[in-house]
Design goal:
Layout: E1 4-6, E2 9-11, H1 13-46, E3 47-51, E4 61-65, E5 75-78, H2 84-90, E6 97-103, E7 108-112, E8 115-118, E9 121-125, E10 142-143, E11 148-152, E12 169-170, E13 174-180
Antiparallel strand pairs: 1-2, 3-4, 4-13, 5-6, 5-13, 6-11, 7-8, 7-10, 8-9, 11-12
Domain Peptidase S26: 23-179
Keywords: Plasmid
GO molecular function: serine-type endopeptidase activity
């Protein structure tokens, strides 16, 4: 093994080895930074922070995973339809809603008076009028279609699938599945 030259002077083999190690460490560090930023960008593209401004849920902040399929009991974040009642309460461009998944595709929704049941289990009670006095139309009954969910909250004034203005929430309206953080 010969000696390397540094500014015209021979370098001992240990110094040459130390330069090679530093070069490979720098290349490896750069590779890790690139891979880390790529993974962070992918995570960012599939996640969003949602701030809940309503009283219908006890939580006010959610990490939303756009790639996770909702399961019973999960929080689901979705874009509400632009019905006159929703626009009157939430504006022309309402923020996404967050509700719990109470019914899954294939479950059966029934209504007996003001009581709403899913597969025989009571999940909600209907009100005839909103706090502002608007008539509330009951939501859908029957088998929940494929890729759709019955969503709701335990709050008596929750605006959810128990009313036709929200109805079943289907895949095309879902932003993602949320985990409460605050």
């Amino acid at each position: 093994m010969g000696l390397a030259l540094s500014e015209g002077r021979p370098m001992p083999p240990s110094t040459e080895h130390s330069h090679q190690v530093r070069r490979w460490l720098a290349i490896g560090g750069l590779g890790l930074c690139l891979a880390g930023s790529s993974a962070l960008a992918a995570w960012r593209d599939e996640h969003v922070l949602l701030i809940n401004t309503t009283q219908s849920l006890p939580n006010w902040a959610f990490w939303v995973d756009r790639s996770r399929v909702p399961q019973r009991g999960d929080f689901v974040v979705f874009n509400p339809p632009r019905t006159p009642l929703i626009v009157a309460h939430f504006g022309k461009a309402p923020a996404p809603f967050a509700k719990r998944v109470l019914g899954m595709p294939g479950d059966f929704v029934t209504r007996d008076g003001s009581v709403v049941r899913i597969d025989g289990r009571e999940v909600a009670r209907l009100k005839a009028f909103s706090k502002r006095g608007e008539k509330l139309v009951p939501g859908p009954v029957g088998r929940i279609p494929e890729h759709c969910y019955y969503v709701g909250t335990a709050h008596a004034d929750g605006f959810d699938s128990r009313y036709s203005d929200v109805g079943f929430v289907c895949r095309d309206r879902i932003v993602g599945t949320g985990d409460s953080v605050l």
